[in-house]
Amino acid sequence: MSPITDNETPSATKGLSDTAGQRGAAGIPGEDWAQSLFGPLLTLIVAAESDSNTGSSRYEGFDGSTARLAELREVERRASTVFASAEEEVFEDGVESSFSRKLATFVWSYGKAAIDAIVRFIISDSANREVASEALRVVGRIRQPSTHRDRLWLLEHGLYSSSARVRDGAALGLAFLDDPMAVVSLSLAVEREQIPELREDMQQVLDQLEETARWHSS
């Protein structure tokens, strides 16, 4: 797959209205994908802070305690450190970067909380597009069953980024993940992609996942 840059636009959102019904049926967001990712997590954090004085919780697995909030803040701090370390790094295809090693260690250490933190960096201006693209590749390469579904979810949503570089990273991440569950998302992404080279790359990944699905069913 050839490198894709954000100079190779047209807009990623051109023609999205034509497949809005398909995306809705597949549970895939459109132009407001960032809010759909970020909103639920903010709700959890706000709820936890409001309940912290009583220690009560309205969410399974989220105890609303001061200790839990401190843990979340520590994960955020570590994520900031990892992403900041990548700002001056030059990424090369096929070469493991220092950032990729640090990010993989971060995910292995904090699991789902780490993925949540990565989401926030990728959908905000906190990470540049090159760093976000590299992060998505790393997310796909990690072999951690406990976060598999969260990583799949992030990579699928990355296909709908306005940045061609981020979409490219999401497609590569899905190639590494090799999960046929992403076939629907990739099919829709291929249909709407306006950059021919990136559309061809996505199609290659889609062909790979369809072959994996056939292999699993045989």
Walk me through the structure.
With 218 residues, this protein is mainly alpha-helical. Helix content is 64%, strand content 0%. The protein has one domain (6-217). It has helices at residues 20-26, 33-51, 66-84, 98-110, 112-123, 129-141, 148-158, 164-177, 183-192, 196-217. The radius of gyration is 18 Å and the shape is globular. The model is unreliable at 8-63 (pLDDT under 50).
Low-confidence stretches: 8-63
Q: Report the count of strand segments.
A: 0
Average pLDDT taken over every residue: 77
Based on CA atoms alone, the radius of gyration comes out at: 18 Å
Number of individual domains: 1
Helix content: 55-70%
- The number of helical segments is 10
Give the DSSP E fraction (strand runs of 2 or more residues).
Answer: under 5%
Class by helix and strand content? mainly alpha
Report, as a whole number of angstroms, the end-to-end distance: 28 Å
Query: SSE order, as H and E?
Result: HHHHHHHHHH
Shape: globular
Q: Mind summarizing the main beta sheet?
A: none
